[in-house]
Amino acid sequence: MAIPLFGEACPAGFPSPAGDYVEAELDLNSLCIRHPSATYFLRASGESMRDLGLYNGDILIVDRAETAQEGDIVIAEMDGGFTVKRLRLRPRPALEPMNPDYPTLYPETLTLFGVVTHFIHRTRARL
């Protein structure tokens, strides 16, 4: 479904008088999904990525076709389950939380299940 995309950026202040000008339509699939056959959605759980702005219940868009790089947010296997963390490759592979209340993980074997390319965060209070 294509939704109108307004051509002017939205400052976090007063609205622009040109705010009624629609530049194009935007399909969120084309914006967020580069490799459709390798992309899946996953719901975040917990608070370990809070300082990144990723909260419990947010939807992750994960691309298995992307090659993970230093600093990417990744889905990794840990102790038979999945975790979402920032990937650190130097000085040794690590999975770094974005909340100081959680420890950095240093897995002996690092198995990745994709790179988080976007996440969807609800701004209204959940009922």
TrEMBL record:
SUPFAM superfamilies: LexA/Signal peptidase (SSF51306). Residues 4-116 form the Peptidase S24/S26A/S26B/S26C domain. It holds the Pfam family Peptidase_S24. InterPro entries: LexA-like, LexA/Signal_pep-like_sf, LexA_repressor, Peptidase_S24_LexA, Peptidase_S24_S26A/B/C. Keywords: Autocatalytic cleavage, DNA damage, DNA repair, Hydrolase, SOS response. It comes from the Bacteria. GO terms for molecular function: DNA binding; hydrolase activity. GO terms for biological process: DNA repair; regulation of DNA-templated transcription; SOS response. The keyword DNA damage applies. Belongs to the peptidase S24 family. This is Peptidase S24-like family protein. It comes from Candidatus Erwinia dacicola.
